[in-house]
Amino acid sequence: MLAIETINLTKDYSVGFWRKRPKRVLDGLSIEVKAGEIFGLLGPNGAGKSTTLKIFLRLIFPTLGTARILGKELDDISAHEQIGFLPENPYFYDNLTAEEFLNYAGELFGLPVAERQRRTARLLQQVGLEGARNVQVRKFSKGMVQRLGIGQALINDPELVFLDEPMSGLDPLGRREVRDLILSLKEKGKTVFFSTHILSDAEMLCDRVAILNRGRMQGCGELKEMLALGIASTEIVVVSPQQNLLDELKACGGACVRTGERVRVAIPKESEVSTALNKILQAGVEVVSVNPVKMSLEDYFMEQVGKDSVKRHEEELIAQTKGGR
Amino acid sequence: MRAMNRVAAIALHTFKEAVRDKVLYNLVVFALLLIGAAILFSSISVGIQQIIVVDLGLSSISVFGLIMAIFIGIGLVSKEIERHTIYHILSKPVRRVEFIVGKYLGLVLTLAINTAIMTVGFYLAIYYQKRSLGAEDLAPLSAIYFILLQLAIVVGLAIFFSCISTPVLSAVFTFCVYIIGHFLSEMRWLGTTLHSRVAKGATEVLYYLLPNLSDFDFITRTAHGEKISASLMVSNSLYALLYVTVLISASILIFEEREFK
């Protein structure tokens, strides 16, 4: 079963004061998220991640395209019964305590009093705010507000959780706790859809990711498959190489980094690896290790976003040339 | 039934949030001080002591109620949008209509309770001045009821303007409509004296479009012992109900289409 399905989802905003013109912030997004998986929406700032989430939650409306959440159309608000949402940089009512706010969130889902109290107590403990249950939110630190936001997103025991930049504002310990929380949600069979620009989080958590840049999807798929597509480079570690050997290795396209006596040489082209190794062995230098370095999500991301930037630049140049004629 | 529960939850939360605002307490304290000051003014007004206490007391309730209605009313919707707390509400199974109605009812409840507190202060002032309270002293309650009806309309205006404008502009618009609303009859008369047909038409349209708040102003007449008839009570109540229904319906229509970027 699909938890989320979007077809050609597009959003334009009107910009300009006197002469309004449309600005496309999301351009034909088509994705499918299976129930029970952790799906990451990645992209730099302004890529359209928050816009996508806001469309899913009916905070804004799509210009084109359709989406189904838990098998229901966006207009069908009953889908929200099974949804939890943490917005980016959440802000809560200053004068309410953490306990009162979670209780209020539970009331909006129509939970009975006893159930609300039980869930509020459990969630406060789960997000580490048990000691601050009677403290007003205006006295909270940014990290505490973020934790409370996660708590309110889970008050209805949702099937699908949307998290917009969930690690934002958290210290390393807090980030670790949120990661564990997301993994525990997956264990319970919940679907987690989160946006982030912190790639290491996505790499650790996601089953599948989609990469957005300037509103367009650059790639989507299983993380394992995406990263297994290519070997980024081959790393050769040698001990005390002569300078002329290093110069020759650099000529093979290798990048050298010295750490004490050892030098790490990264050869980007597979075809150059045997040539480089021959040169090292001929020079009688000791080889410590030869390792293929797999592409990280960051490498993949930079490759995809970089490609898009070049493509956009070309499109702009073509447009300018046409405009000039 | 669940929709009603959600509206009640939003209304109670609005009330809770509002009563914990220190600004509200300051306003209530100021209002009570001014009602108390009415005793001092009455002591230097020979023969019209009670008129001064009633007039000044009811005016204090009206003015401070207005300030509360405008400033808290504007904050209700605008602040939720500005601070993005609206994301939490609308991402839950809450319809936008429920949000607006809940917010409105919450603020009317807040104003009703604050007006009740100020009314207690007002009667304490009368008691202090007269050393007794009789059945004839119940007459100001009708004027207070009319003040509350006015405030209910002002809150409706504040919510309506919050849906289409920024907080500052909403406060300005609401205040302007409140002022004009007290002089609609004069404005209509002014229109009839003008030669321009456009000006005449405009004053006529404004007369029917804007709330006629002068019909709710019985402070001076109550101070002079005039009683409010039952038929006026009913007609003013129906007028306020109708006007608020139109305002809230318009707010809902605008809010349904609004995007929260």
For the report, how would you describe the main beta sheet of chain A?
6 strands, mixed
Strand order of the largest sheet of chain A: 7-8-9-4-10-11
- Biggest sheet record of chain B: none
Order of helices and strands of chain B: HHHHHHHHHHH
Give the number of helices of chain B.
11
Q: What would you report as the Rg of chain A, rounded to the nearest angstrom?
A: 25 Å
Oligomer: heterodimer
Low-confidence stretches of chain A: none
Number of helices of chain A: 10
Overall average pLDDT of chain A: 86
Rg of chain B to the nearest angstrom?
A: 20 Å
Helix/strand structural class of chain A: alpha/beta
Q: Which range best describes the helical content of chain B: under 10%, 10-25%, 25-40%, 40-55%, 55-70% or over 70%?
A: over 70%
Strand residue content of chain A:
25-35%
- C-alpha geometry of chain B: globular
Report on this structure.
The complex is a heterodimer of chains A (about 325) and B (about 260). Chain A is an alpha/beta fold and about 325 residues long. Helices cover about 35% and strands about 30% of the residues of chain A. Chain A has ten helices and 15 strands. In chain A, a hairpin with a 5-residue loop joins strand 1 and strand 2 (about 20-30). In chain A, helix 2 (about 100-110) crosses helix 3 (about 115-125). Chain A is globular, with a radius of gyration of 25 Å. In chain B, helix 3 (about 50-80) runs antiparallel to helix 5 (about 95-130), helix 3 runs antiparallel to helix 7 and helix 8 packs antiparallel against helix 9 (about 195-210). With about 260 residues, chain B is mostly helical. The relative contact order of chain B is 0.13. Chain B has eleven helices and no strands. The mean pLDDT of chain B is about 85. The chains are: A alpha/beta (about 325), B mainly alpha (about 260). Chains A and B meet through helix 2 of A and helix 1 and helix 4 of B.
